[in-house]
Amino acid sequence: MACWVSVLSLACMGSLLRCIQASPCPLLPVPNNVTENPCSSPSVEAMPVYPKEAQRASIKIKNTPSFLLPLFLAHGTFQELDLSNNELRSLPKTLFHDHPEMDTLDLTNNLLEDLPPEIFKNSNALRKLVLHRNRLATLQPSWFDSLQRLDALDLSNNLLKDVPPSCFSKLENLTYLDLSFNFLHTLTPQMLQGLPRLEKLKLKGNQLLSVTNGTFQGAPNLKFLFLQNNTLTSLPAELFKPLNHLEMLDVSNNKLNSLEPHFSSQATKLSLDLSSNPWTCDKNMSALVTWVKQSVVFLCAEPQTTCDSPKNLEGQVVTSLLPSTFDSC
Ligand SMILES: *[C@@H]1O[C@H](CO)[C@@H](O)[C@H](O)[C@H]1NC(C)=O
Ligand SMILES: *[C@@H]1O[C@H](CO)[C@@H](O)[C@H](O)[C@H]1NC(C)=O
Ligand SMILES: *[C@@H]1O[C@H](CO)[C@@H](O)[C@H](O)[C@H]1NC(C)=O
Ligand SMILES: *[C@@H]1O[C@H](CO)[C@@H](O)[C@H](O)[C@H]1NC(C)=O
Ligand SMILES: *[C@@H]1O[C@H](CO)[C@@H](O)[C@H](O)[C@H]1NC(C)=O
């Protein structure tokens, strides 16, 4: 059970200490696996949750201004710290410096616009960092310098327009990166440099107009890639080619009219969501459909994957068209 602390009572310090010293607060057992049909499975997108550990202590601190946080954290050690929903606008520079044991930090739903450059200097044990729903407009690469153990990083629902070059390049153990619902308009190879273990990358609900060829070279182990709800009009032909382990690509709700089927031949468990795009049903689409049918590719939301042009094929499900139909247009 989480430990709730209010600054207004003196008793709170006592209850905080009891929480730290006595009863470890267990994590919720959310499944972190992949079900048969990744298209509709929420668990594919879900963040990793770590197994409950014997002496795990968890602190949840509520209604606390940031200047009082060091007081609360001064006693005891803890693996998990939940500072969500606190209206925090800033964090003291050294807040976590005496807590190298911390492995999970949740800062969801605060008002953070920035973080001190060395905030995580001693956080070498950190495995999960959640900054969901804040107001971060830029990322500082120095935040991530010491986080070689970090496994999951959630930066969704912030105000990010950009990712600085090599920002994540120290995150050698990162498997999960969520950048959904920001304001990114382009992706380049520099942004994803040095992510050898990355498996899930979520970029939905940004304003992506373009993705440079080679962007995913720095993350060759990507399995799940979510690019839906952006404004992509086209993608480089060989963009996904380096992804030998790709299992799920979601480009639904974009403005794509063409996609070339240049995927790695080693990606043998692939599911694609191409729905809600204005596809041009020409020879390129014919090649894509033929490839989908011949290989073991699973097409999600097939009824919503329709032609937008030419006019005589508008609204037709792309897979219902025989290659001969395409040839005639
Ligand atoms: C995923 O986890 C759930 C809950 O732990 C379990 O019931 C289900 O069988 C698992 N599925 C797979 C494919 O492992
Ligand atoms: C990265 O993860 C692997 C496998 O979980 C582990 O053996 C290794 O020690 C980790 N690296 C760091 C720097 O923690
Ligand atoms: C695209 O990038 C890949 C490496 O990811 C490279 O092999 C290929 O030549 C590039 N294609 C073009 C047209 O630049
Ligand atoms: C994506 O866009 C579609 C159509 O605009 C909308 O119905 C859907 O709710 C959006 N999904 C997300 C996750 O924003
Ligand atoms: C197929 O796609 C390529 C690259 O996107 C484009 O150059 C070409 O014109 C397309 N072919 C047709 C028949 O539209």
Automatic annotation (TrEMBL):
It holds the Pfam family LRR_8. The keyword Signal applies. Residues 277-329 form the LRRCT domain. Keywords: Leucine-rich repeat, Phospholipase A2 inhibitor, Repeat, Signal. InterPro entries: Cys-rich_flank_reg_C, Leu-rich_rpt, Leu-rich_rpt_typical-subtyp, LRFN, LRR_dom_sf. SMART domains: LRR_BAC, LRR_TYP, LRRCT. PANTHER family: INSULIN-LIKE GROWTH FACTOR-BINDING PROTEIN COMPLEX ACID LABILE SUBUNIT ISOFORM X1, SYNAPTIC ADHESION-LIKE MOLECULE SALM. This is Phospholipase A2 inhibitor beta-like. It comes from Eublepharis macularius (Leopard gecko).
